[in-house]
Input
Amino acid sequence: MEKVKAEYWEKKFQEMQSLDLTLEKENQGLKTKITELRRSLHLHQSCDSTVEDSKLLIEQLGVREYHLKGELHQFRGQVRERDHVIEEAVAQIREVAEHV
Output
């Protein structure tokens, strides 16, 4: 009877050791997976940061484009005004030249 109990407990002990080894392997696999996931998360966070920086840059460029278009419009107006002044000056010069 004692021998049967001892064999039973020995068998249970071996089963538990086997189960413990299996669980340790699974645990190591899970730790490896966690490490991979952390790396992946860091990469995605880095990409998100890059995307946010790019969005900010695009917004800044849009504002700059708006201001530059305003300046261009103003410069075109100045050129038209200058052309008009020159045309009037040429017309007056012609009138004076005709009288001379």
About this structure: Residues 21 and 27 are 10 Å apart (CA to CA).
